Prior knowledge:
The chain has a single domain (43-255), classed as hpI Integrase, Chain A, CATH 1.10.443.10. Helix content is 35%, strand content 9%. The protein has ten helices and six strands. The chain has helices at residues 19-31, 43-53, 59-73, 78-81, 149-162, 185-199, 214-225, 230-237, 253-256, 259-266; strands at residues 97-101, 104-106, 120-124, 136-140, 173-176, 179-182. The protein starts with 18 loop residues before the first helix and ends in a 27-residue tail after the last helix.
Amino acid sequence: MAQLGYPDPRLLPSGKLEFRLSRQLAAYNKIDPPPTRVKPIPVQLLQHTIAFHTITVDHFNNALSDMITLGFYFLLRPGEYASSANPDSSPFRLQDVHLMLGSRRLHPYRDYHILHAATFVGLEFTTQKNGVRGEIVGLGRSGHATFCPVQAAIHRIQHLCQHRAPLHTPIYYYYMQAQWQTITTTHLTTALRRTATSFGGSFGINPAEISARSLRASGAMALLCANVDPDKIRLIGRWRSDEMLRYLHVQAFPVVARFAPAMLQHGHFTLIPNTPLAAPQPAPLPHGGHGGL
């Protein structure tokens, strides 16, 4: 229309895009998936990362390892367990972490002396994205000495309580060099890519293909490889649509390794006959009549 000499109906007299259109396009940008997606990280690489950062007793490295563990097991978004530049991020806080000993909930300060015995950890959703306010998602111990969500939560609560942190303190805070500092998404991405540089080639992982967002995809991928129902994965990860499918890579060996035998075993079937009905025959012409006009 503009090429024909008419005013561009999308623009205001000032030349700016009409307000309603700009808001509509902004909404589309939020809905549309990014052009690239991060790859999930195999558990072996995550364990390498944690082992590297727990060699020495260092509050930064310990906090980093705990955040990686919680991000993986709870399928968390980066801003929920690491300091992020995203203004919409809403982190879990000390008061949102519930440690349980059997059926008893442990208070971080009053029950500090028995926190180490906790058998279950739950995260309570307050203002986190796609979470039902007041709902608690929980996990038991993994059976691994260091790569365990309960153990990671215990470490975080113990450290925060040792330094008298208020209950509203985000769980990614740690006290070092006489001041509070934070684990950021950049810290997580750097640590994960460092490990991928050393060991990623054996697992088909390029360092540039992973970031802090990979931990959410990694947890979902691990559940898929364990044959957990996709609807349950969506429930745990708080996906409200099929967006989850973008996180699940079908080239993961445990997922596709069973396909060929299954197809061979279950490929025997018989189709229900689908014979088309015979076309109706034309009525006979009257005696002596002609078929034409």
